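Progress report, Aim 2. The chain analyzed during this reporting quarter is listed below.
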Amino acid sequence: MENMGDNTKENLELMLRQLVGKPIWGLSIGPAGVHLHFGEKHPDPHPSVEPHGDYSIWVKGGIQITTKAKTLWESRPYPSMREAPRLSALLGGKIVSVAAIDFTMNALRIVLNDEVLFSAYPLRLNEEDCPWILYDHLKPAAHYMIVRKDGAELVSR
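Predicted structure tokens for the chain:
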């Protein structure tokens, strides 16, 4: 994929491998996207902020949830807030079996319980980037990967 050097690809693949074996939980949908958490719950030092996982993913682009037999969910861009209970039922509590990126379209692919495939993919709608972002909350400083339709960048502060 253009605009994604070898080092960026390696960092992204390494971050995604860390999701394997971790449960998915805490789905929330807001006016700007879908947020999912992976791994253990960690309380935020600010009482008004929800706990976060070891890792989390924020998706502003498209989402698809499938099994080998059928498509369970598809939305472009992300779903509305009223659809959160259905999505939570499809994903919540499942364990990540495989996590990878499809570099042909910069799509996130996460296999859950060896049976459900969660895909998130960046979009470009009306000249607006609609990326997905992978956060590593185990790092002491901000550490995340922004994946757009035309490339990716690692942010570490």
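The chain has a mean pLDDT of 89. The chain has one domain: 6-156. These observations will guide the mutagenesis work planned for the next reporting period.
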